């Protein structure tokens, strides 16, 4: 291959106007041993590209998707069922308030003293209402005079 | 689609997926994981796969997107990609390695420093020898944008390579 042709191709290569075939030619050229000094600087590029293509994916591929798919399905349906059960449960759940008796919350002594206090209050209250009876009597008499006038 | 059939479809380009992933993620372990992930995704879509006219292009685009997402999330969480690719190369065969081999790893390092898009274009074109039309499809780029990126990438590699040669910085 003539040198000036390669030089032209290199020039074209850096402006990204070479075709795949021309690039293949360049790669092959630079993989040779006898490269002129002024072109030697480009050699590592093309050599690297060629060597980079040698890399392989060596990891073992485990395609156990089939069984995993069934299990995935199972989880999907199980979660749907769980949500359904939960919502139905929530719907039918009506909290029955626990009846709280006085005996549960207070001791016998406390209840007794409270009853005593209430009895006292009632007695005094009745006293008050008795006084109101007098007031009623008073009004009756005053209205008698008032109507007379 | 049976497993053997699937493997037959995937075999010819699985290395290409891996190489693209490695170009983007740098670390070989990360690239292996990414490739495996992509192949498993393809396997789970095997029913739809029969309708694709170009499974390879589809898988390559998937790999590209997957790796870019990966890089983005790594960046967001401020994690550096850990890789030990350079280390063993330098120490294990330091004496044996010829200078030529050394400058090849320079090219690799220079490529790692390129912006992602240029990296991908250079990888697809110069390593995998895809046609421009294919690269357009794979990367979803305009033809002119591809040529500009490719030309820039090639020139950057050349310049940095000359720099390293003249200063002898490894």
UniProtKB/TrEMBL annotation, chain A:
UniProt keyword annotations, A-Z: Membrane, Transmembrane, Transmembrane helix
Transmembrane segments: 74-93
Protein name: Uncharacterized protein
Organism: Maribacter litopenaei
Automatic annotation (TrEMBL), chain B:
Annotated SUPFAM superfamilies: Sigma2 domain of RNA polymerase sigma factors, Sigma3 and sigma4 domains of RNA polymerase sigma factors
RNA polymerase sigma-70 region domain ranges (all copies): 12-75
Record-stated family: Belongs to the sigma-70 factor family. ECF subfamily.
InterPro entries: RNA_pol_sigma-70-like, RNA_pol_sigma-70_dom, RNA_pol_sigma70_r2, RNA_pol_sigma70_r4_t2, RNA_pol_sigma_r2, RNA_pol_sigma_r3/r4-like, WH-like_DNA-bd_sf
Keywords attached to this entry: DNA-binding, Sigma factor, Transcription, Transcription regulation
Lineage: superkingdom: Bacteria
RNA polymerase sigma factor 70 region 4 type domain segment(s): 106-156
PANTHER family, per database record: RNA POLYMERASE ECF-TYPE SIGMA FACTO, RNA POLYMERASE SIGMA FACTOR HI_1459-RELATED
Protein name (record): Sigma-70 family RNA polymerase sigma factor
């Amino acid at each position: 291959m003539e040198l000036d042709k390669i030089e032209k191709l290199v020039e074209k290569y850096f402006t990204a106007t070479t075709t795949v075939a021309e690039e293949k030619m360049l790669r092959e050229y630079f993989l040779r041993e006898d490269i002129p000094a002024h072109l030697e600087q480009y050699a590592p590029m093309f050599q690297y590209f060629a060597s980079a293509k040698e890399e392989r994916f060596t990891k073992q591929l485990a395609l156990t998707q089939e069984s995993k798919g069934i299990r995935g399905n199972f989880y999907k349906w199980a979660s749907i069922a769980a949500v359904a059960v939960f919502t139905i449960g929530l719907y039918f759940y009506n909290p029955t308030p626990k009846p709280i008796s006085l005996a549960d919350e207070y001791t016998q002594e406390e209840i007794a003293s409270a009853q005593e206090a209430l009895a006292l209050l009632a007695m005094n209250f009745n006293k008050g209402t008795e006084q109101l009876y007098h007031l009623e009597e008073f009004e009756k008499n005053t209205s008698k005079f008032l109507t007379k006038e | 689609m049976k497993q053997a059939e699937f493997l037959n479809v995937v075999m010819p380009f699985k290395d290409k997926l891996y190489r693209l992933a490695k170009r983007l993620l740098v670390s070989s372990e990360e690239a292996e994981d990414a490739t495996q992930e992509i192949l498993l995704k393809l396997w789970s879509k095997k029913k739809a796969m029969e309708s694709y006219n170009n499974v390879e292009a589809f898988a390559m685009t998937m790999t590209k997107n997957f790796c870019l997402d990966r890089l983005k999330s790594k960046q967001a969480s401020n994690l550096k990609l850990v890789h030990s690719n350079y280390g063993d190369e330098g120490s294990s065969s330091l004496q044996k390695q010829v200078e030529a081999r050394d400058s090849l790893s320079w090219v690799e390092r220079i490529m790692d420093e390129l912006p992602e898009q240029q990296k991908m274009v250079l990888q697809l074109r110069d390593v995998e020898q895809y046609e421009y039309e294919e690269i357009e499809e794979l990367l979803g780029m305009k033809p002119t944008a591809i040529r500009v990126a490719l030309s820039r990438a090639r020139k950057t590699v050349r310049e940095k390579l000359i720099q390293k040669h003249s200063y002898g910085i490894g």
